[in-house]
């Protein structure tokens, strides 16, 4: 007896159905189905410039839409941000008085400690990070103390550690050293622990290139160096392997988050760092990157919403968990508008 065959059976197909990647691009809900990334508000950190004195927020000419806020305004700002859905800030102080050592940077009643206390009072859940550097407090505008016309590494680290402890004492959740001194993360971590701030996190500006895109920021911070430039401490933009060494070093010194900067010129570094480290990664979309987009949008050259979203999505796709961006409030507004 021959084996019974199901008459409906056919030989298996030999043809493989061609891949058509457009299938999931056909409608908006299908595109949502397969979207790999999002620039969620919870990942965005808004830089905030704080200045001495009272009065109104002061617009920064080269950064349309960005202000310098007097400390007296910080409670109100924290409440506004809370209402808008912005979850975290990175504070930058403008020194009340500048001297060669940058001593106002670690004054307990300084601009940044006052701002931290005010913001935390008004909005305890706001994540407050602070930039730890001397450049807005030194009379010469360099990121550290100068000896023999050169920025002295370890003397600067010792001062950065004092700044970090001052910020932690005022209630900062995260301190972010940006001076690009060798060993700064280690110095800061040790000082924080010695002062009892074991839980204050360190977000290290690890791979920070000497960039032309910090121009508008230096206007905001009044921190342009009065002689020379920052190339003896910030990284040469040509170097990528060295950037990874900077990150390795900071990770080894105990950094909790590694950051690259500027963002768009460091997408390769983000992608490589994502493979190599399990620490959270941050990218700083800097002032020049902001102003280029803002000014192009104001001229009608690009659509602001589309261009900003695309930019931040690229930074996410490259591997950033967190993005420091002056567009955080716009993103919050667009998300309230359902865009
Ligand atoms: C301080 C610091 C700078 C920026 C962040 N922290 C300026 C600089 O290094 O000259 C740049 C941020 C921006 O351009 O948005 N050292």
Provide key terms for this protein:
single chain; 339 residues; alpha/beta; TIM Barrel; two-stranded antiparallel ribbon; 17% strand; globular; binds ligand PBG
Description:
There is one protein chain. The chain is of the alpha/beta class. It has a domain at 38-254: TIM Barrel (Alpha-Beta Barrel), CATH 3.20.20.70. It has helices spanning 28-34, 74-84, 111-122, 153-170, 184-194, 215-221, 241-252, 267-276, 287-298, 304-318, 328-336, and strands at residues 44-51, 58-59, 67-70, 88-93, 127-132, 146-147, 150-151, 174-177, 201-208, 257-261, 281-285, 322-325. Bound molecules: ligand PBG. Ligand PBG binds next to α6.
**How far apart are the first and last residues' alpha carbons, in Å?**
70 Å
* Helix/strand class: alpha/beta
Low-confidence stretches: none
Instruction: Give the DSSP E fraction (strand runs of 2 or more residues).
Output: 15-25%
Number of helices in the DSSP assignment: 11
Q: What hetero molecules are bound to the protein chains?
A: ligand PBG
CATH level 3 topology of the domain at 38-254 = TIM Barrel
Oligomer: single chain
What is the helix content? 25-40%
CATH top level of the domain at 38-254 is Alpha Beta
What is the name of the CATH superfamily of the domain at 38-254?
A: Aldolase class I
The residue-averaged pLDDT reads 96
């Amino acid at each position: 007896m021959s084996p019974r065959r199901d008459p409906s059976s056919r030989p298996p197909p030999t043809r493989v159905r061609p891949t058509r990647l457009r299938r999931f691009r056909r409608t908006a809900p299908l595109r949502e189905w397969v979207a790999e990334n999002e620039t969620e508000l919870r990942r965005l950190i808004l830089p905030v410039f704080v200045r001495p004195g009272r009065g109104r927020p002061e617009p920064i000419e080269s950064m349309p839409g960005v202000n310098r806020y007097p400390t007296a305004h910080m409670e109100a700002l924290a409440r506004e941000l809370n209402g808008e859905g912005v979850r975290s800030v990175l504070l930058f102080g403008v020194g009340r008085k500048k001297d060669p050592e940058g001593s106002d940077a670690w004054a307990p009643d300084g601009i940044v400690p006052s701002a931290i206390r005010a913001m935390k009072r008004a909005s305890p859940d706001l994540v407050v990070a602070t930039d730890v550097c001397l450049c807005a407090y030194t009379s010469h505008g360099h990121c550290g103390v100068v000896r023999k016309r050169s920025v002295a590494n370890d003397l600067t680290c010792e001062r950065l550690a004092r700044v970090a402890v001052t910020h932690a004492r005022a209630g900062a959740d995260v301190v972010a050293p940006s001076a690009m001194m060798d060993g700064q993360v280690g110095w800061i971590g040790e000082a924080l622990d010695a002062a009892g701030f074991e839980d204050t996190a360190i977000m290290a500006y690890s791979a920070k290139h000497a960039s032309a895109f910090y121009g508008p920021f230096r206007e905001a911070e009044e921190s342009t160096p009065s002689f020379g430039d920052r190339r003896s401490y910030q990284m040469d933009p040509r170097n990528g392997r060295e950037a990874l060494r900077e990150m390795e070093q900071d990770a080894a010194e105990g950094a909790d988050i590694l950051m690259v900067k500027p963002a768009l010129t460091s997408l390769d570094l983000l992608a490589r760092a994502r493979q190599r480290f399990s620490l959270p990664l941050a990218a700083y979309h800097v002032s020049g990157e902001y102003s280029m987009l803002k000014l192009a949008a104001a001229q009608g050259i690009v659509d602001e919403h589309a261009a900003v979203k695309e930019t931040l999505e690229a930074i996410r796709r490259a591997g950033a968990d967190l993005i420091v961006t002056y567009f955080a409030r716009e993103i919050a507004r667009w998300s309230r508008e359902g865009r």
